[in-house]
Design a protein that fits this description.
The complex is a heterodimer. By secondary structure, chain A is an alpha+beta fold. Helix content of chain A is 23%, strand content 34%. Chain A has helices at residues 6-9, 62-70, 112-123, 127-140, 156-168, 186-203, 214-220, 238-243, 248-253; strands spanning 24-33, 36-46, 51-56, 77-82, 85-86, 97-100, 174-178, 206-211, 223-228, 231-236, 258-268, 271-276, 281-286, 296-301, 307-309, 319-330, 334-341, 346-352, 367-372, 378-380. The longest helix of chain A is centred in the middle third of the chain and has 18 residues, at 186-203. The chains are: A alpha+beta, B mainly alpha. The structure holds adenosine-5'-diphosphate and magnesium ion.
Chain lengths: 382, 297
C-alpha cells in the first residue's frame, strides 16, 4: 500500500491525539425494530479525513447504522453529532452527509448527467456552476463521454461510479458508502478499491465504508470497527485488529489463524504457560491483563508467525510442536503447510519462499517442528 | 420438420388464431354490415355481394350510414358525452386510485395481501347486482336520503339517482380496481432506495414524489387509465341503470339502434366509429409498453 490518507499522514494519527476533536460522534445509539435490536448501544468517534470501515457479517446492522447516520432512520436512543452539531432529528435532506447505496439507487429515468446534477439542482446552485461541477465530477470518476447515457446502458461498475459522483458532487462533509464494491467482480473490485482511495485522498472527504469483506476493510481503511449482532466488538487500525484481536470471532474473521484452547498452568509477571490439551503442548504467552492460574482461555497464532523446521529449534523460550507435513500448497511467494501434530490437530503454517529453487524444501510426510515466539501467542479470554 | 418445430409453430399460431376467430372475423362482419342498407328482412340488411344479379351490379356498398352519423347531432352529442364521462371518470379513478395503490405498495406484506384481497373482493358479486345495489342506495327513498332526512340535514329527498353524478359514481366504483391493480404493480416494483437517494441529495418529501415516484409510475398510470377509459367509453349498463334520460352515452345509442330500431347497418357504423376512437389510446398504450420493455432490457 503506497497511498497515505490525510488522517494517517499526520505526525500522530488523529485518534491518538487528544487535541483533535472527533468529526462525527455516535453516542450510545440503539435501534429497535419491533423488539428486534438491529443496532445495540454503539459508540463511535470518527475524525476528519478518515476512511473508516465498519465491518461485519450479513445482517449485523451495518446498513441500519449507516441509515441512521444519513438520517433515514431515527435511533431509538442515543445521539449523532456531526462537526459539533446534533443531527439526531435533522431530516436527510438537510444533513451535510451523502450516501452511496448498496443498490446504487441510480435514477433509471435520468441520464448520467441529470443523475449527477440532481443534488446540485435541489440546492439551487446556478446553472453554469452545476454544469462545471458535474463535468469535473464525471472526469474524476472517468465517466466523461457517458453524460447522455441512461443507467440501463451502463455496466455495473459504471453505475457504481455514477452513484459515487452523484454523492460527491454535493461536497458533503461525510460520504457514507454501503458495500460500495460488493456488486463488482473480483478484478474490478480490486481496481476500484484503489480508485476509491485515490479519490478520497484527492478531495479529503471523510469516508465511512460498510463492508463484509475483511480484505477490503484492511486495504482501504485507516481504522476498522468490527460489528457483530448490532454491537461494536473491536475498533482499531487494521494492524491492531490483525495482531491484537480481542476475541475468537475477530481473530477468525481476519485472515487465517490457529486457535488452541487451554488452561493457564503457571503465571510469572506478564508471562504465562498455557497447557493446551488438544495439541498436547505447553504454550508460552504474554498478556497485559492479569490472568489467574487455571483460567481457561484460547491461544491464537497466525500462520506466518510460526517457523517450520526439520530440526528442533535451539531456543527454549519458544513454544514448540512436533508433527508431519499433511498437505502443502505452493502459492508463488508463499508456501502454505498444513501440519498434523502428533495429537492429530491440523496446524496451518505459511512460509515465504525466499530461496529460488525448483525443489521443495519440505515434502509430504516430513517430520517437522513448529515454533513461535512468546509475543506471537495471542491470548483470548472470550 | 421435427416435433419441437411443430409445437413451436402451434404455440406461436394459437394466439393469432384466437384473434382471428374472436376479433378479426367479427370485426369484418360488423364492418361489412356498416356499408349495407337496412331492409325489412332476415337478416335486416342488404348483402355486399348478390350473385343473383348481373356481374356488374353484384357488388353493393354505401357510405350512407356514416354520412347520417355526421349529419344527425344525436350521435355527435352522445359520442362527446361518452368521451367526457369516460375522461373525467378516468381522472377521478386516478385521483382516488393512486393514493390507494401507493398505500398498498408501501404496506407490510401481510396488510398488502389483505388490501389486495379487499380490492378484488367486489368481483365475486355480479357486476349487475352491484349496480342495482347503488340504485337502492341512491334512490329518493334509498339509504342515503333516508339517513339525511332522519338526522334532519335535509327537508326534501335529494335527486341523486338518474344524474351525471350517479353515472360517475357508478363508473368510478366499478372500474377503480382496474386502476389500482396496475398502479400497484408498478409502485410495488419501485426501489425505495431511489426515494431515499433523492431525499439524501436534498429533495423534500413532495419533491421526491414529483421527481422520482411519479415519473417512474407513468407506465402504471397509462395502463390503469386505459383499462378504465376504454370500457367506460362504451359503457352501457351503468348509464342505462343509474343515468338520467339526458345522459345518452354511445353504448345506449348503439343498443337502441340495434334492438329498438333494428337498424343494424347504422348501429354497425356507430360501433366502427367507437372502435376507431379506442384505437388511438390503445396505440399510445402499446407505444409506452414497448418503451418500458426496451428500458428493462
Ligand atoms: N426496516 C426494518 N424493519 C425491521 N427489521 C429491519 C429493518 N431494517 C433492518 N432490519 C433488520 O435489522 C438487521 C440488520 O439489518 P442490516 O442493517 O440491513 O444488516 P447488514 O447491512 O449488516 O447486512 C437485520 O436482521 C434486518 O432484518
Ligand atoms: Mg447491508
Amino acid at each position: 500500500m503506497t497511498q497515505v490518507s490525510p488522517a494517517q499522514s499526520a505526525e500522530k494519527p488523529a485518534w491518538l491525539d487528544p487535541a483533535t476533536k472527533p468529526f462525527i460522534r455516535v453516542e450510545g445509539v440503539t435501534k429497535n425494530f419491533n423488539g428486534f435490536t438491529a443496532v445495540d448501544n454503539v459508540d463511535l468517534e470518527i475524525y476528519q479525513g478518515e476512511l473508516f470501515a465498519i465491518l461485519g457479517g450479513s445482517g449485523c446492522g451495518k446498513t441500519t447504522l449507516l441509515r441512521i447516520l444519513a438520517g433515514f432512520e431515527r435511533p431509538t436512543s442515543g445521539r449523532i453529532l456531526i462537526d459539533g452539531a446534533d443531527m439526531t432529528a435533522v431530516p436527510p435532506y438537510e444533513r451535510p452527509v451523502n450516501m452511496m447505496f448498496q443498490s446504487y439507487a441510480v435514477f433509471p429515468h435520468m441520464t448520467v448527467e441529470k443523475n449527477v446534477a440532481y443534488g446540485l439542482k435541489k440546492e439551487g446552485a446556478p446553472k453554469a456552476e452545476i454544469q462545471t461541477r458535474v463535468k469535473e465530477m464525471l472526469e474524476l470518476v472517468q465517466l466523461d463521454g457517458f453524460a447522455e447515457r441512461k443507467p440501463h446502458q451502463l455496466s455495473g461498475g459504471q453505475r457504481q461510479r455514477v452513484a459515487l459522483a452523484r454523492a460527491l458532487v454535493k461536497r458533503p462533509k461525510v460520504l457514507l458508502l454501503d458495500e460500495p464494491l460488493a456488486a463488482l467482480d473480483k478484478k474490478l473490485r480490486e481496481h476500484t478499491q484503489f480508485e476509491l482511495m485515490n479519490i478520497q485522498d484527492q478531495i479529503g472527504v471523510t469516508f465511512i465504508v460498510v463492508t463484509h469483506d475483511q480484505d477490503e476493510a484492511m486495504t482501504l481503511a485507516t481504522r476498522i470497527a468490527v460489528m457483530q449482532a448490532g454491537r461494536f466488538i473491536q475498533c482499531g487500525t487494521p494492524k491492531e485488529i490483525y495482531e491484537y484481536p480481542v476475541n475468537r470471532y475477530v481473530a477468525d474473521f481476519f485472515g487465517t489463524i490457529n486457535l488452541f484452547e487451554g488452561t493457564v498452568s503457571r503465571v510469572e509477571g506478564e508471562g504465562m504457560e498455557v497447557e493446551c490439551g488438544a495439541i498436547d503442548a505447553m504454550v508460552k504467552a504474554k498478556s497485559f491483563e492479569t490472568i489467574q492460574p487455571n483460567t481457561r482461555l484460547t491461544i491464537a497464532v497466525r500462520p506466518e508467525k510460526i517457523s517450520i523446521t526439520k530440526e528442533p529449534p535451539d531456543h527454549n523460550d519458544k513454544s514448540v510442536l512436533k508433527g508431519v507435513v499433511w498437505d502443502l500448497g505452493y502459492h508463488g511467494n508463499l508456501s502454505i503447510y498444513r501440519v498434523k501434530t502428533d495429537s492429530g490437530v491440523i496446524v496451518q503454517v505459511s512460509a515465504q519462499n525466499r530461496i529460488r529453487s525448483a525443489e521443495r524444501v519440505l515434502e509430504w510426510d516430513d517430520v517437522v517442528y513448529l515454533s513461535w515466539d512468546v509475543q506471537s501467542s495471542v491470548v483470548l479470554t472470550e | 420438420m421435427n416435433r419441437d418445430d411443430l409445437w413451436r409453430r402451434f404455440v406461436i399460431v394459437t394466439p393469432y388464431l384466437w384473434l382471428l376467430m374472436f376479433f378479426l372475423i367479427p370485426f369484418g362482419l360488423v364492418l361489412k354490415i356498416s356499408f349495407a342498407d337496412p331492409i325489412v328482412a332476415m337478416p335486416p340488411f342488404t348483402s355486399l355481394f348478390d350473385f343473383n344479379k348481373a356481374p356488374g351490379e353484384s357488388f353493393y356498398a354505401t357510405l350512407d350510414n356514416y354520412r347520417f352519423l355526421l349529419k344527425d347531432d344525436l350521435y355527435r352529442i352522445s359520442y362527446l358525452k361518452s368521451l367526457k364521462i369516460a375522461f373525467f371518470s378516468t381522472c377521478l379513478c386516478l385521483l382516488v386510485g393512486y393514493p390507494i395503490a401507493y398505500a398498498i405498495a408501501r404496506a407490510s406484506p401481510v396488510w398488502r395481501n389483505m388490501f389486495l384481497f379487499l380490492i378484488i373482493l367486489p368481483f365475486w358479486i355480479s357486476f349487475l347486482l352491484r349496480v342495482y345495489a347503488w340504485m337502492g342506495i341512491l334512490s329518493t327513498n334509498g339509504v342515503i336520503n333516508n339517513l339525511l332526512l332522519s338526522i334532519g340535514l335535509i327537508e326534501q329527498p335529494l335527486q341523486l339517482l338518474y344524474t351525471d353524478f350517479s353515472v360517475y359514481l357508478g363508473i368510478v366504483y366499478s372500474y377503480l380496481p382496474f386502476m389500482v391493480l396496475p398502479l400497484y404493480a408498478t409502485l410495488a416494483k419501485l426501489d425505495f432506495d431511489l426515494n431515499d437517494a433523492a431525499a439524501d441529495l436534498g429533495a423534500k418529501p413532495l419533491t421526491v414524489f414529483r421527481d422520482v415516484t411519479l415519473p417512474l409510475s407513468i407506465p402504471g398510470i397509462i395502463s390503469g387509465s386505459l383499462l378504465v377509459f376504454i370500457p367506460a367509453l362504451g359503457e352501457f349498463v351503468i348509464p342505462a341503470l343509474l343515468g338520467g334520460l339526458d345522459s345518452l352515452m354511445i353504448g345506449r345509442t348503439l343498443y337502441d339502434e340495434f334492438f329498438g330500431n333494428r337498424d343494424w347497418p347504422l348501429a354497425s357504423a356507430v360501433a366502427i366509429i367507437l372502435l376507431l376512437m379506442l384505437v388511438v389510446p390503445m396505440m399510445v398504450f402499446q407505444h409506452y409498453q414497448l418503451r418500458e420493455t426496451d428500458q428493462r432490457e
